[in-house]
């Protein structure tokens, strides 16, 4: 823990009105809560064991961490916990997962919030969600190993990280997509992510685990997204090939083309190295490719690090 962590208050207000359609859990629900977390929430909050319900509200964490919650929030939490029981299991695919927005209005189908077969924003991934125009960067120049943190722009970086951040930096509505049924649909699901799920408010990646960065694949320095592994990396303290442990790695051809699969000297990690947005490779929660428990290679952090 840093000596004087800056306090950021997460204030989220929402009102969900869902049409009584295909899911049993459809209901009208609303709530307001105010929470104060001691440090800013890092994306890589392995340190934080509290579960969250479907709307990103800290649940068990309430009892273990010094949060202040309004009394109203507790009522809402109880309500939402019962809703969470209908959530899809880890690994069972995208339907009914937190990335299934298909019943949020506008009739847009499940895949089309992110992909479209025609008129995509980018051919790569057939991407359909309006990209963020934020410039992403961290608050420090380099990691302990001396690897520079990159800065990149949400609408020009071609790695999948910029696709995730098109929703997860809170600047673009979840339903702001390019093309559906022959045109840009009237705005559907006009929610911008706030609170815990907004991990990079307006481009600020401070406090987040490195991403869009090189990994010492093959226990060697690698260059990725314009950055090379720093001179002080303990090259022996890395899994030689995390892909064998279920991690997805990427390579950068040096000309801005990023594709999946490690290539010696040119490999890096993206958000989707740790998460599977389709909930297929996820094992426990939060779309993660590894467990958040244990001290062997099933534990996510040890799939790349050897500590
Ligand atoms: C919330 C956004 C989102 C939704 C919804 C979504 N995808 Fe994806 N999809 C992504 C991202 C991000 C990637 C890049 C994944 C990576 O880097 O591993 C991707 C990658 C893919 C790929 C490329 C191959 C692969 O697996 O990496 C295919 C094919 C694909 N998605 C199909 C689908 C289909 C079919 C659906 C609907 C059933 C769907 N996706 C729904 C975000 C989404
Ligand atoms: C189209 C917008 C969109 C895109 C693109 C998107 N997400 Fe999400 N994601 C959301 C929303 C909205 C939620 C919260 C849903 C809710 O509150 O029910 C969410 C939830 C999550 C969660 C929390 C899951 C849980 O079980 O609590 C993770 C982790 C996540 N996203 C990671 C990613 C990653 C990684 C990518 C890219 C590979 C990505 N997302 C791309 C909109 C998006
Ligand atoms: C090194 C692995 C790793 C990378 C890379 C990573 N995450 Fe995560 N992320 C995690 C872990 C672990 C958790 C779950 C923490 C928990 O459950 O307490 C998490 C949780 C989340 C959550 C839920 C909110 C929270 O704090 O629990 C979101 C949303 C999310 N990640 C999005 C992203 C996005 C977007 C990116 C890329 C910009 C990304 N993650 C990159 C490991 C990673
Ligand atoms: C997909 C591979 C991967 C996974 C999984 C992963 N990391 Fe990392 N981690 C990296 C890379 C790459 C770096 C940057 C290395 C460098 O400095 O060159 C890094 C750096 C770090 C650093 C050093 C940051 C600094 O400023 O020096 C810490 C601490 C860390 N990771 C912790 C974790 C924790 C905790 C987890 C589990 C939640 C985790 N990592 C999971 C790849 C990973």
Give the overall shape, derived from the CA principal axes: globular
Please give the order of strands in the largest beta sheet: 5-10-8-9
The major β-sheet equals: 4 strands, antiparallel
Instruction: Enumerate the spans where pLDDT stays under 50 for 5 or more consecutive residues.
Output: 1-85
Termini distance?
Answer: 19 Å
Mean pLDDT value: 78
User: Could you spell the SSE succession in H and E letters?
Assistant: EEHHEEHEEEEEEH
Topology:
Layout (H helix, E strand, L loop, with lengths): L7 E10 L10 E10 L23 H4 L6 H14 L50 E2 L15 E2 L6 H9 L44 E2 L8 E2 L2 E2 L21 E3 L5 E3 L6 E3 L1 H4 L33
Antiparallel strand pairs: 1-2, 3-4, 5-10, 6-7, 8-9, 8-10
Bound molecules: heme C (4 copies).
Describe this structure in words.
The protein has about 300 residues and is of the alpha+beta class. Helices cover about 10% and strands about 15% of the residues. The protein contains four helices and ten strands, in the order ββααββαββββββα. The strands form four sheets. Strands 5-10-8-9 form a four-stranded antiparallel beta sheet. Strand 6 and strand 7 form a beta hairpin. The model is unreliable at about 1-85 (pLDDT under 50).
């Amino acid at each position: 823990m840093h000596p004087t962590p800056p306090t950021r208050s997460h204030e989220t207000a929402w009102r969900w009105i869902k049409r009584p359609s295909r899911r049993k859990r459809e209901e009208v629900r609303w709530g307001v809560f105010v929470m104060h977390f001691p440090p800013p929430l890092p994306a890589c909050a392995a340190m934080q064991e509290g579960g969250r319900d479907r709307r990103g509200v800290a649940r068990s964490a309430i009892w273990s961490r010094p949060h202040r919650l309004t009394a109203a929030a507790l009522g809402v939490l109880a309500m939402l916990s019962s809703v969470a029981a209908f959530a899809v299991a880890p690994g069972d695919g995208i339907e009914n997962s937190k990335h299934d927005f298909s019943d949020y209005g506008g009739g847009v189908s499940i895949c089309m919030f992110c992909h479209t077969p025609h008129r995509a924003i980018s051919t790569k991934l057939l991407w359909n969600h309006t990209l963020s125009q934020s410039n992403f960067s961290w608050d420090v120049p380099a990691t302990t190993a001396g690897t520079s943190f990159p800065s990149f722009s949400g609408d020009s970086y071609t790695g999948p990280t910029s696709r995730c951040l098109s929703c997860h930096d809170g600047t673009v509505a979840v339903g702001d997509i390019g093309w559906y049924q022959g045109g840009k649909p009237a705005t559907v699901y006009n929610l911008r992510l706030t609170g815990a799920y907004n991990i990079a408010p307006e481009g600020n990646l401070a406090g987040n685990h490195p991403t869009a960065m090189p990994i010492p694949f093959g226990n060697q320095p690698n260059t990725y997204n314009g950055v090379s592994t720093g001179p002080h990396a303990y090259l022996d303290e890395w899994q030689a090939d995390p892909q064998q442990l279920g991690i997805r790695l990427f390579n950068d051809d040096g000309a801005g083309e990023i594709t999946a699969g490690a290539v010696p000297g040119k490999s890096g990690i993206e958000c989707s190295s740790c998460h599977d947005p389709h909930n297929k490779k996820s094992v426990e929660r939060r779309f993660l490719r590894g467990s958040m428990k244990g001290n062997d290679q099933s534990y996510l952090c040890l799939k790349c690090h050897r500590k």
